[in-house]
Amino acid sequence: MEPAEARRPPAILEVHGVVKRLGGVEVLKGINFTVAEGSVFAIIGASGSGKSTLLRCLNMLVVPDDGEIVWKGQRVGWTKKGPAWVRQKERELLAYRREVGMVFQSFNLFPQMTAMENIIEAPVQVLKRPRDEVVAEARVLLDKVRLSHRSSAYPHQMSGGEQQRVAIARALAMKPKALLFDEVTSALDPELKGEVLTVMRDLADEGLTMILVSHEMGFVRGVADEVLFMHKGVMCERGRPEEVLRAPRTPELQTFLQRVVD
Amino acid sequence: MEWSVVTGNAGLLAAATLNTVAIAATTIVLSVVLAFPLALMRDSRVAPLRVIAGIYSWTTRAMPTLALLFLAYYGLPELGIYLDPVPAAVAGLTVSAAGYNMEYIRAALKAVPRGQYEACRALGIPFPLALRRLILPQAMRILLPPLSSNLTLLLKGSALASLVAVNELTGQAMALISDTYRPIEILIVVAVVYLALNGVLVAVQKGVERQFRLPA
Amino acid sequence: MDVIVAQFPRFLAATWLTIWMFALVTVLSTIIGAALAILSEAAGKAVSVPLAIFSWVFRGLPELVVLLACYLALPAAGLDLGPVGSAILGFTLIGIAYQAEIFRAGLASVDPKLFEATRALGMNWRLTMRRIVFPQVVRTVLPAWATFSAGNVKAFAVASAIAVTEVMAVTRQSIAMSNQPFLLILVAAGIYAAIASILMVLEVLVSRRFAGQTGANS
Ligand SMILES: Nc1ncnc2c1ncn2[C@@H]1O[C@H](COP(=O)(O)OP(=O)(O)OP(=O)(O)O)[C@@H](O)[C@H]1O
Ligand SMILES: [Mg+2]
């Protein structure tokens, strides 16, 4: 149907007909898309349209009620036992979550640990890797997020922008194949958004697969390979940002874009 | 005042004080250890575990501690379980204190922001590990004040052991009073010892709290 | 079961004794504790320091030691109140120690700025107390008061140790008669638990109500 599809690299993540009900309301009403390896996929939409819920479904923090998510050809969250599909336990999902990391709007750094300790915690404790090796890697990561000088600072001693960059480094320390970003700059003062977006742009340039929810239209336009506009749990428009954002076809997206620009 | 009843029996009182300390310390440790799984059960996804923990919490908080001690000492033999006075007292005090401890632990675990639990899940950290290394140290700051005030109550509660024939401080005091009939001197000394032990407990609590404080 | 039937009147009398002792102690210690808290707020260190020491001592001592002091030491000093009188005195002293702390915290929670605000509005002292201070104090005091009271009933079982024939004492006598300790202790525990449960439900209702009002959620 779309000739562009043929030229795209193979999908690393596929989302088929995902439905999620929360408190009796259908928050996601059948979402379909694929994400190519190494690409940046942006999700936009008004507050309450279901963006966070969708992102949290992708790493199974929230379990979809219907549909399936396929990661590298494998169905996520379900194991085939004979003819039947069996729900995986939380424990079994952990390995998948290590491949698909997540960065939150509210940073969620561990308050009792320094930046360095936050970053090395999971690789050392979960992956049981040698501490020295992990610390050396963490230094490189801190350098990448331009925080080499803050390695022994505690979260409450850092600005929001610094905390968020540590959170990104913490997620990267698990060497994920993809990262999910849920409005990671929304809680930041305008002057601090830039430093976080710069780091994210670097990651995109390095070829990390990224799926992000963002209200930063300039960033989405400049960095995303594909944009999905959601409205009340439905996929409204989808395509390359220069097309979708410049020439919105639906009145919903037109209204949304006008409101964001203001 | 006739202080010789105290000085003359200083050895007995000192030994009884050690018993009080041992009973209180054992109960403190055991009641906290018992309370943790109960606190987790109370919010478990498995409904029967939730119900059991809920019943445990309510009944042990509603029953007099003394009734639990009597149950352990006078009641259990009827079921063929014979406990010596000290284990019976420790069992009764532990079961009673765990009911309160579990509520404090539960409240503290709930007070840790949801985002912290989610960050752990998103990093692929198994729940037991997340609990031990990341959640508990944060919960500790909220947990310590109510927990340690409950542990102070436990020190006081250890006096009940005297009523199941344990020769701790209060029991020894009662024995000396009936021997010497000098209640004023003996009870003054006993009161001072209890207050001093309380002071030690508060000092320990302050030290532990400092451990969990964040650097400025 | 026979024991319980045979001992039923005595259990009933013991339950009634426990309830009225608890009620009397609660009323006395609340009134005296509140009065001392207000007094120490008004009179300063001359009252507040001795009150703090009193409160620290009686919150730090085992109930049993306080009761023994009232039951054994006071007669030795020439004041014999008997078992029930000693128990009431002992529990009232302990209750005052806790209630004074609870009311002190309640008074301290009133923001001094409120007084300025009411003065700016032209409210007089009595009106300020009645409309502003009192509701605020009640809001902070009531949950703590309910928690303390719910926990405090059970402590009355200790009175059995100084020959007060409350529920636990009747239980011990019945055990000696019948050799069915487990059942009898459960009955006694059940009687206390029933009284405590009524107060615990009250505690939950009160704290829920006031948690809602201050906007804090659990
Ligand atoms: N636990 C829940 N129970 C009931 N409804 C919920 C729950 N969580 C979210 N919702 C509802 O689901 C809808 C989608 O929420 P979601 O957080 O995914 O939106 P969003 O697009 O991320 O919004 P925002 O831009 O404000 O972050 C909202 O209407 C929200 O009220
Ligand atoms: Mg959201």
Q: Can you offer a commentary on this structure?
A:
The complex is a heterotrimer of chains A (262), B (216) and C (218). With 262 residues, chain A is of the alpha/beta class. The mean pLDDT of chain A is 92. Chain A has one domain: 3-Layer(aba) Sandwich (Rossmann fold), CATH 3.40.50.300. In chain A, helix 4 packs parallel to helix 6 (160-172). In chain A, a hairpin with a 2-residue loop joins strand 1 and strand 2. Chain A is built from ten helices and twelve strands. Chain A has helices spanning 3-7, 51-58, 90-99, 115-125, 131-144, 160-172, 190-205, 217-223, 241-246, 251-261; strands at residues 11-22, 25-36, 40-45, 66-71, 74-75, 78-81, 84-87, 100-103, 178-182, 209-213, 226-231, 234-239. In chain B, 80% of the residues lie in helices and 0% in strands. The relative contact order of chain B is 0.15. The mean pLDDT of chain B is 92. Chain B is an all-alpha fold and 216 residues long. The longest helix of chain B is centred in the first third of the chain and has 33 residues, at 10-42. Chain B is built from nine helices and no strands. With 218 residues, chain C is mostly helical. The radius of gyration of chain C is 21 Å and the shape is elongated. Chain C has one domain (2-217): Orthogonal Bundle (MetI-like fold), CATH 1.10.3720. Mean pLDDT of chain C is 87; it is low at 213-218. The B-C interface holds B 58-59, 61-68, 70-71, 74-79, 107, 110, 152, 156-160, 162-163, 170, 173-174, 177, 181-184, 187, 190-191, 194-195, 198 and C 56-57, 60-65, 68-69, 72-73, 76-77, 151, 154-158, 160-161, 168, 171-172, 175, 180-182, 185-186, 188-189, 192-194, 196-197, 200, 218. The structure holds adenosine-5'-triphosphate and magnesium ion. Residues 51-52, 182-183 of chain A line the site of magnesium ion (MG).
